Structures are given as structure tokens and as C-alpha cells.
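Our preliminary data section would be incomplete without showing what the modeling component actually yields. Below, a chain of 59 amino acids is followed by its predicted structure, encoded as C-alpha cells that our downstream tools consume directly.
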Amino acid sequence: MDDRSLGSRLAGFAVAVAMVLGLLWLGAWVLDVALGPFTPLVTAVVVASVVLLVLRRDG
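Predicted structure:
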């Protein structure tokens, strides 16, 4: 049985979500600086690749 309270679980979850969002923001900033005008193209390719991988795995 887990001895942690609901509040500490929620706090841990909030910290984890904040860290993920911060890393996503940092990654987007690095892509924007590194790729400049090509960032939307690279983002579209990455999203399309992930969607295709998910659809192929489920099918």
C-alpha cells in the first residue's frame, strides 16, 4: 500500500507535468533557433511520422 497522501501525489503529478511542458518548450525554442524558417516543416514531418507509427502499430 502506498503511504503517500493524495496531496503529495497531486503535487508530484503537477511537478512531472511542469517538467514535461518545460522540456517541450525548451525543445521548441532550440528547434526554432536551430532551424529558423524550417521549424514548421520539421514539426509536420515529426508529427506525421508519429501518427503513422501509431496507426501501423494499432493495425
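The CA atoms of residues 47 and 53 lie 10 Å apart. The chain has two helices and no strands. Preliminary results of this kind motivate Aim 1 of the renewal.
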